[in-house]
């Protein structure tokens, strides 16, 4: 007898081939998927109760070895079970509100209810992040960006490059007038505006339907860009460097990319240290998303910030564990293009890092990336076509 292992992505197809009644498909899907979550630093007494509740429903919880003997006060906990098991445990926890169990209940309720990433509609373009992947083309109107500094500072060359990226299939053109490479100096608002606004006006005039992103952390630059045709704010600071940026996003009701950065571009690579990188990034996005939601900002894209206050191993961890960030149920943008960590691994100079970038972005797509921010649009458009054809 032959036997074959199948994964959850194949289940519907295999149920159909087996002649299973379609009315039972959802039942089998729920039973086939084991959900695993990690809860950080919870009360050990609550962890003991949580484990018993999961075991009683057919799931389990992994905790510190000293929890059962009450020799530790706190523990991380890894919960395991099907959707149905989680739902039954959550019902039980409605009556157990002590030892932090109420917060655990609310957290689990929130994460298991997230099924689909909300779409975004900009102009005539609908972004369906559950079924498609997108390219953000980089346009640096700067003299000192790490990869192409000075190449597109002149207006004519910037417009030509933007048109090339649009022709090659870019879904978004991301325009920046200030380099955020490690050690970069600040640029005045006036200088930044003089670099980006003419480009935005020209692109909007010639390409009425192209989606334009403004890469800035300054509220006045963002506001002026939006007034002249930009559609998205891409803020490396997660709306933290300029307190007025939140008001701009809320007033214009536009999508915003919030990135994680440790420090500022000037000092971010001076020995950045993390005790637990993924945990700290999750905490950061949890705080940022909650804060922005309270301001009425819902159209959020998250970017873990490859290369922004990250060492080589940190960047590799982010790509490897990118699925961790899908817990927020929001689109994930990843920016690996030509960055130094690729050069550290391959030994290639900036202009020869396309192959390494494609490799990194391939893994990022597999692990949950929805938008790739890149310098080289055409090869990444082809990458996405192949990825989606295989995974349709």
Detailed description of the structure:
The protein is built from 14 helices and 13 strands. The longest helix is centred in the middle third of the chain and has 18 residues. The protein has two domains: 80 residues, Ribosomal Protein S8, Chain: A, domain 1; 272 residues, Dihydropteroate synthase-like (TIM Barrel, Alpha-Beta Barrel), CATH 3.20.20.20.
- Provide the CATH top-level class of the largest domain: Alpha Beta
Shape: globular
Order of helices and strands: HHEHEEHHEEEHEHEHEHEHEHEHHEH
CATH-defined topology of the largest domain: TIM Barrel
- Helix segment count? 14
Q: Would you tell me the structural class of the helices and strands?
A: alpha/beta
Compute the gyration radius: what is it? 23 Å
Strand content: 15-25%
Mean pLDDT: 93
Can you summarize the main beta sheet? 8 strands, parallel
Could you give me the name of the CATH homologous superfamily of the largest domain? Dihydropteroate synthase-like
Low-confidence stretches: none
Spatial order of the strands in the main sheet? 11-10-9-8-7-6-13-12
Describe the structure in brief.
The protein has 14 helices and 13 strands. With 392 residues, it is an alpha/beta fold.
Walk me through the topology.
Elements: H1 11-17, H2 25-32, E1 35-43, H3 44-57, E2 60-62, E3 74-81, H4 83-93, H5 101-113, E4 120-122, E5 125-127, E6 134-140, H6 155-168, E7 172-176, H7 189-206, E8 211-215, H8 219-227, E9 232-235, H9 245-252, E10 256-259, H10 277-294, E11 300-303, H11 312-320, E12 333-334, H12 340-346, H13 354-366, E13 371-374, H14 377-391
Parallel strand pairs: 6-7, 6-13, 7-8, 8-9, 9-10, 10-11, 12-13
Antiparallel strand pairs: 1-3, 2-3, 4-5
């Amino acid at each position: 007898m032959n036997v074959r292992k199948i994964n959850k992505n194949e289940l519907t197809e295999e149920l159909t081939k087996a002649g299973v009644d379609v009315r039972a498909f959802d039942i089998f899907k729920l039973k086939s998927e084991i959900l695993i979550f990690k809860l950080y630093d919870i009360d050990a007494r609550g962890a003991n109760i949580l484990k018993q509740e999961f075991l009683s429903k057919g799931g389990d919880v992994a905790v510190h070895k000293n929890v059962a003997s009450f020799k530790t006060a706190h523990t991380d906990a890894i919960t395991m079970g099907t959707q149905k098991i989680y739902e039954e445990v959550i019902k039980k926890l409605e009556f157990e509100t002590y030892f932090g169990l109420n917060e655990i209940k609310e957290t689990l309720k929130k994460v298991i209810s997230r099924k689909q990433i909300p779409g975004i509609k900009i102009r005539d373009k609908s972004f369906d992040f559950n079924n498609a992947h997108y390219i953000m083309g980089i346009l640096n109107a700067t003299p000192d960006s790490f990869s192409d500094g000075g190449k597109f500072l002149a207006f004519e060359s910037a417009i030509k490059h933007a048109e090339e990226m649009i022709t090659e299939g870019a879904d978004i053109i991301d325009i920046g007038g200030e380099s955020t490479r490690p050690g970069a100096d600040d640029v005045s608002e006036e200088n930044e505006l003089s670099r980006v606004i003419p480009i935005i006006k020209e692109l909007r005039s010639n390409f009425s339907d192209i989606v334009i992103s403004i890469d800035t952390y300054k509220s006045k630059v963002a506001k002026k860009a939006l007034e002249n045709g930009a559609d998205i704010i891409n803020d490396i600071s997660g709306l933290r460097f300029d307190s007025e940026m939140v008001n701009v996003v809320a007033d214009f009701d536009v999508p915003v990319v919030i990135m994680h950065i440790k420090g500022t571009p000037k000092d971010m690579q001076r020995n950045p240290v993390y005790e637990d990188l993924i945990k700290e990034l999750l905490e950061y996005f949890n705080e940022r998303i909650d804060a922005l939601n309270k301001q009425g900002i819902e159209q959020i894209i998250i970017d873990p910030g490859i290369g922004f206050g990250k060492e080589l191993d940190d960047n590799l961890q982010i790509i490897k564990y990118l699925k961790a960030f899908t817990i927020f149920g929001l689109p994930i943008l990843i920016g690996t293009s030509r960055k130094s960590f690729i050069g550290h691994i391959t030994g290639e100079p900036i202009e020869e890092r396309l192959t390494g970038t494609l490799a990194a972005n391939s893994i990022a797509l597999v692990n949950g990336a929805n938008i790739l921010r890149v310098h080289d649009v055409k090869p990444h458009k082809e990458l996405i076509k192949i990825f989606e054809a295989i995974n349709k």
